[in-house]
Amino acid sequence: MIARLVRISLALAVITFGTALLAQVQNGGFETGDFTGWTVSGDTSLIGVCSVSTCPGGFAPYQGTYAAYFGPVGDTATISQSIATTPGVQYTLDFYLANPVGGTPNYFSASLGTASFSVTNFGVAFGWQEFDVTDTATSTQTELSFTFRNDPAYWFLDDVSVSSSGGGTTPEPGTFVLFGSGLVGIAALVRRKLRF
């Protein structure tokens, strides 16, 4: 009986932990120093990954060592990746965006599945700002993409992440510890009752 309870507890913990790992964005902070994990398409002539010493205009990454920059002229560049999701679960794409010079024409779009956020010819300069987009997954793979154009200067992108919310919350690591401790306590109680 106890062995069965422990097996069930471990199976639940593995399923819960697996769900927590499903929405992993590969290289969301561009800390590999390149676009590893991303598919790059379109006009790639004025895009890249940079550090504070190599970013156009000396603009510093939001966090970490690297950020991505995008300045295609007259056309767009897109970076994308497919992430594992659970159908029916709501996911939130979170990212930091900056346009430190401003000016037009420009274009930016972020999309997660069928949800998107975009701006066209937003000429006001701004530093790092946090944005998010939320969508409910309809399949086990959801497309995440960013599209850019910036004729006078560059867009900067950093700290891209996707997390589950709403119907499918991702437990924190401490929750697993508490959950496991509780199951061990229940198993011990069941074992004592079976002995008497």
What does this structure look like?
With 196 residues, the chain is α+β, with helices and mostly antiparallel strands. It has 2 domains: 1-23 and 170-196; 26-168, Jelly Rolls. Helices cover 22% and strands 38% of the residues. The protein has 2 helices and 10 strands. The strands form 2 sheets. The chain has a 5-stranded antiparallel beta sheet, with no helix packed on it. Strands 2-3-10-5-8 form a 5-stranded antiparallel beta sheet, with no helix packed on it. A hairpin with a 2-residue loop joins strand 6 (106-112) and strand 7 (115-120). Helix 1 runs antiparallel to helix 2 (173-195). The radius of gyration is 22 Å and the shape is globular.
Layout of helices and strands, plus pairs?
Blueprint: H1 2-21, E1 39-42, E2 47-50, E3 67-70, E4 77-84, E5 90-99, E6 106-112, E7 115-120, E8 126-136, E9 141-150, E10 155-165, H2 173-195
Helix pairs in contact: 1-2
Shape, principal axes of CA atoms: globular
CATH topology of the largest domain: Jelly Rolls
- The assigned CATH architecture of the largest domain is Sandwich
* H-E order: HEEEEEEEEEEH
